[in-house]
């Protein structure tokens, strides 16, 4: 039995051992959670994703029972998904006492923090992370922190600018008078009202970075006056971020660390020297496996599980192996390799580390505006339009396209195919559920893309999350497809594959571009990511530049004519 119920007096306990995809199991779950109880405890032991009706039921139960509802998840993927929808659930995280993989470091401080920030940056080893720094500074005086830090580090140091794509080995300084937010791999600056009397606010930056990096974020809160930084800590702990509070005994301005410690939501209380030592340890943690060892590991994965990562960028793969090793509490790459090959469950966890699922609605809005104004009017002449979003992750991109096509009156004769090699994110995308926390940024992107209504017009709101309306959702078909191994499955007028090729080596990039060329009709278009192109991967064989500033390319008709002439000659 996949749904086990136990009722004692007015307390209901439900153990779910499935993802509830089966209708019978789902009805049993609905029956067990109906009626009235004093307390409900629901445990999901073997689910990475849940279907839409179950998520809606969990939200209804949360609204009805409040603190008398307990949802326990045994899979980190499901815990993360429900948390993003603000459905409270708990996950038994790995034990403390080891250094986790780190992709981002956030440092926040106020009065008396400048010398401390310099000390941390001065001793920070150069590694593939991104550093974000926010200080309370006067809005009418330009900051000199970026120029100061350049004298102490090998990292690239930049004053944060809105719309900047986030890079590793880079330190971003929050500018005066603006909040700094990181979403979907980009920095955004906003002039929203002050938070805790501060703009930029530490809380605002910490909260957004925790959403983006989750357990791979280390946040350091230094000395200062006031409460800024304390308000974001509970949410960060839920995202499994590491939070370090400077020991107030180190500070003259003690308010910020004292208030933060009072929340009880932190990982460590450390002196400045201990903070520096911790970050050095984080830099030293992980795998030192050679390229040859990692390549052999990827070959073994392909042989055992059928997933082909052999053409992926090795440095990216090595970073994700380091993160996975830290989570598994393994110091030996050899031990990690053997267990990942032997254990399907452990490989599944590694698989999710390899899968990149960061995106937003109308990401790079000027690209969507170009599609709206130049590409879609051209496609008006087609009786039926087919579009492929390759590497669609959790679905924001295909839903964004559906909204534009709806506004242009073209959606009824369109079919959007959205694919990803990760079957779990495909199921999440099918649900069409998204957190409302990034709604303001998503609305800004929508407006800048040329939207004619409001983004809210295409959403149904459930309080803590929102759902794409059915008229958009029904025109999008989600399914799994692996760009590294799978072939052509249709003929399209438009293909979008943005920020995927950057994770592939040159050989796999060419393979994918050839696949896209074979999948397009005679006059079809392909859209790549901001940091991608066709110049280093023989892409000119298949495509010509159409919208240079937006990485939009058109199928190379010269190649087609040459091929046809060759056939005639035969």
Count of discrete alpha- or pi-helical segments spanning 4 or more residues: 20
Number of strands: 24
* CATH top level label of the largest domain: Alpha Beta
Range of strand content: 15-25%
Tell me which CATH architecture of the largest domain applies here: 3-Layer(aba) Sandwich
CATH topology of the largest domain: Rossmann fold
Mean of the pLDDT scores?
89
* Sequence stretches where pLDDT stays below 50 over 5 or more residues: 93-100, 561-570
The tally of structural domains comes to 4
- Give the spatial strand order of the biggest sheet: 8-9-7-6-12-13-14
CATH superfamily of the largest domain: Vaccinia Virus protein VP39
Give helix % range.
Answer: 25-40%
Distance between the termini: 64 Å
What do you see in this structure?
- This protein has 20 helices and 24 strands.
- It is α/β, with parallel strands linked by helices and 570 residues long.
- It has 4 domains: 3-91; 104-284, Methylesterase CheB, C-terminal domain (Rossmann fold); 291-354, no CATH class; 365-561, 3-Layer(aba) Sandwich (Rossmann fold), CATH 3.40.50.150.
- A hairpin with a 2-residue loop joins strand 1 and strand 2 (11-16).
- Helix 4 packs parallel to helix 9 (272-284), helix 11 packs across helix 13 and helix 12 packs across helix 13 (344-354).
In a few lines, what is going on in this structure?
With 570 residues, the chain is of the alpha/beta class.
For the structure shown, list the relevant keywords.
single chain; alpha/beta; Rossmann fold; 4 domains; 7-stranded mixed beta sheet; 24 strands; disordered C terminus
């Amino acid at each position: 039995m996949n749904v086990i119920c136990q009722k004692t007096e007015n307390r209901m306990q439900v153990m779910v051992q499935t993802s509830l995809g089966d209708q019978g199991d789902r009805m049993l779950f609905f029956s067990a959670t109906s009626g009235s109880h004093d307390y409900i405890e629901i445990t999901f032991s073997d689910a990475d994703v849940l279907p839409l009706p179950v998520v809606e039921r969990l939200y209804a139960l949360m609204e009805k029972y409040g603190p008398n509802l307990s949802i326990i998840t045994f899979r980190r993927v499901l815990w993360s998904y429900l948390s993003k929808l603000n459905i409270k659930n708990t996950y038994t995280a790995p034990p403390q006492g080891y250094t986790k993989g780190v992709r981002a470091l956030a440092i926040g401080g106020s009065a008396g923090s400048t010398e401390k920030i310099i000390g941390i940056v001065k001793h920070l080893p150069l590694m593939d992370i991104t550093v974000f720094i926010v200080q309370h500074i006067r809005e009418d005086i330009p900051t000199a922190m970026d120029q100061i830090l350049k004298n102490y580090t090998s990292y690239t140091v930049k004053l944060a600018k809105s719309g900047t794509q986030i890079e590793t080995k880079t330190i971003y300084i929050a500018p005066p008078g603006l909040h700094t937010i990181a979403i979907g791999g980009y920095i955004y600056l906003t002039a929203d009202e002050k938070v805790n009397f501060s703009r930029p606010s530490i809380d605002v930056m910490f909260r957004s970075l925790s959403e983006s990096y989750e357990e791979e974020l280390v946040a350091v809160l230094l000395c200062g006056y006031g409460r800024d930084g304390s308000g974001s800590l509970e949410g960060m702990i839920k995202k499994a971020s590491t939070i370090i509070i400077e020991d107030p005994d180190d500070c003259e301005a003690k308010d910020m660390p004292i208030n933060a410690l009072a929340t009880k939501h932190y990982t460590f209380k450390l002196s400045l020297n201990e903070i520096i030592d911790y970050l050095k340890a984080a830099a030293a943690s992980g795998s030192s496996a050679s390229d040859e060892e990692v390549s052999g590991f990827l070959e073994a994965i392909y042989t055992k599980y059928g997933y082909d990562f052999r053409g992926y960028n090795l440095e990216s793969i090595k970073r994700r192996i380091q993160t996975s090793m830290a989570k598994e509490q393994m110091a030996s790459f050899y031990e990690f390799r053997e267990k990942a090959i032997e254990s399907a469950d452990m490989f599944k966890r590694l698989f999710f580390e390899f899968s990149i699922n960061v995106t937003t609605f109308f990401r790079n809005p000027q690209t969507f505006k170009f599609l709206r104004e130049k590409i879609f009017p051209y496609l008006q002449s087609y009786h039926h339009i087919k579009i492929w979003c390759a590497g669609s992750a959790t679905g924001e991109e295909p839903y964004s396209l559906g909204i534009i096509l709806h506004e242009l009156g073209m959606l009824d004769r369109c079919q959007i195919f959205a694919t990803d090699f990760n079957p779990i994110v495909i199921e999440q995308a099918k649900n069409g559920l998204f957190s409302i926390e990034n709604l303001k940024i998503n609305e800004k992107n929508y407006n800048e893309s040329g939207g004619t209504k409001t983004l809210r017009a295409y959403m149904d709101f459930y309080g803590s999350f929102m759902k794409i309306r059915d008229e958009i959702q029904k025109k999008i078909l989600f399914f799994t497809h692996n760009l590294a191994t799978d072939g052509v499955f249709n003929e399209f007028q438009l293909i979008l594959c943005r920020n995927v090729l950057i994770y592939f080596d040159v050989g796999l990039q060419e393979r994918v571009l050839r696949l896209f060329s074979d999948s397009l009709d005679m006059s079809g278009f392909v859209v790549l990511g901001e940091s991608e192109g066709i110049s280093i991967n023989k892409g000119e064989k298949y495509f010509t530049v159409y919208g240079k500033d937006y990485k939009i390319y058109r199928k190379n008709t010269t190649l087609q004519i040459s091929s046809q002439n060759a056939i005639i000659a035969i």
